[in-house]
Amino acid sequence: MGFKCGIIGLPNVGKSTLFNALTESNKAEVANYPFATIEPNIGKVAIPDERLKILSKICRSKKTIPSYIDFVDIAGLVKGASVGEGLGNKFLAHIREVDAIIHVVRCFENENITHLSSSINPIDDIETVVTELKLADLEILENRLNNLKKKVNNDDKQLIKQLEIIAIIIERINNNKTISLTKWSTEQCKYIYSLNLITTKPMLYVCNVDESSIAKGNTFSEKVHKRAIKENNQSIIVSAEIESQIAELKNEKDKIELLKDLNLNETTLKKVIYAGYNLLNLITFFTCRPKETQAWTITINSTAPEAANKIHTDFKKGFIRAETIAYDDFVNLNGEVGCREAGKLRQEGKNYLVKDGDVFNFLFNV
Which tens digit of pLDDT belongs to each residue from 197-222? Predict the structure, then answer.
């Protein structure tokens, strides 16, 4: 299992074009008018990882199963979305269901493509969208606050704590302050996550530029990049139009050649995935057997039993130990047998923290 990213932004900034490029499909209607997308388009994409192919080859696996990322193309948000403008309430509900937000920002000038304002200003565009996200969360929080106040009494310490958390978050949103979950306890974070707030989700800004700016960006994308740093978020530069052309090419060599011609080293898909993994603190571990080699996505600092749970709940319940091999050792010693003989296969217990690239065989008893 991978993660789910919602693609948002103002109308006509290139969301659906980017979605089609990322998913190599034509699911999303691309049109030069607002709200071409009504219902969200969803595309499941295999996460490219060369390590998976190498491991599968070493094990001579019959199947190779990657992790996946779900992209959700959500209709354009406009000013007033939080109170239903442009079907905003419906669209905002879709955003609450994703792990991270890809915010596409128009960073190019083209008089042939409609824009909601008279001039291109990516920071103003971001503010328009972010304001609606904040207003939507405030409505949720204030409703929850009023409901809790009706229930709370002096003896109910848990409800009092919840009231305090909500009041703090409302104050921070009203004063344009970030909500950093690193400053909260585990118990507090658990409650905040249960609120399913949009403004607590990590944000990746995708600066949609023209072809001439695709390698180094432009003044528009630089402004977005500075904002992302200030917020502790990330930004990447893409040309959705160019990426859609690359996606249409069937031959992998043709894709590589076109990327080289544009002075690019990787596709937008890889850029988004790398940025998404960093935003969500994700890593990958592997299971490798003749039947199948598979990649699994987990968060940093997950324990071996938590990794085992990704495969099956029984693996965690009856966890005994994890036979563990580092990816480089597995490759350099040509598989499990070579690693056993060289003493590179480790027996790890319940407290072991998984490292990116670990190859596991879980021993369990239920």
Answer: 998 888 999 999 998 898 889 999 99
Tokens matching residue 109: 């000038």
Bin 47: left if φ > 0, else alpha if -120 < ψ < 50, else beta: beta
Q: Which long-range contacts (CB under 8 A, 24 or more apart) does 50-56 make?
A: 51/284, 51/286, 51/295, 51/327, 51/357, 52/286, 52/293, 52/294, 52/295, 54/331, 55/286, 55/288, 55/293, 55/327, 55/330, 55/331, 55/359, 56/288, 56/293
d(CA 107, CA 289): 47
The residues that bridge with 101 in the sheet, in sequence order, are 6, 203
Provide the mean pLDDT of the chain: 86
Angle in degrees, 0-180, between the axes of helices 15-23 and 268-280, rounded to the nearest 10: 100
Nearest CA among 239, 238, 255 for reference residue 247: 255
Q: Enter the pTM of the model.
A: 0.83
Angle between helices 157-174 and 122-151 (to 10 degrees): 160
Q: Which of 130-134, 198-202, 220-224, 263-267 has the highest mean pLDDT?
A: 220-224
Task: Round to whole Å and give the CA distance between 279 and 277.
Answer: 6
**Predicted local distance difference test score (pLDDT) of residue 283:** 94
Other CB atoms within 10 A of residue 334 CB: 10
In angstroms, the Cα distances linking 287 to 25, 308, 312, 348 are 30, 10, 13, 15
> What is the 3-class SS of 157-219, one letter each residue?
HHHHHHHHHHHHHHHHHHCCCCCCHHHCCHHHHHHHHHCCCHHHCCEEEEEECCHHHCCCCCH
Residues 6+ apart with CB under 8 A from 55: 61, 286, 288, 293, 327, 330, 331, 359
- Nearest C-alpha neighbor of 73 from the set 40, 31, 30, 32: 40
- DSSP helix/strand/coil, 359: strand
Residues 29/253, Cβ–Cβ less than 8 Å: no
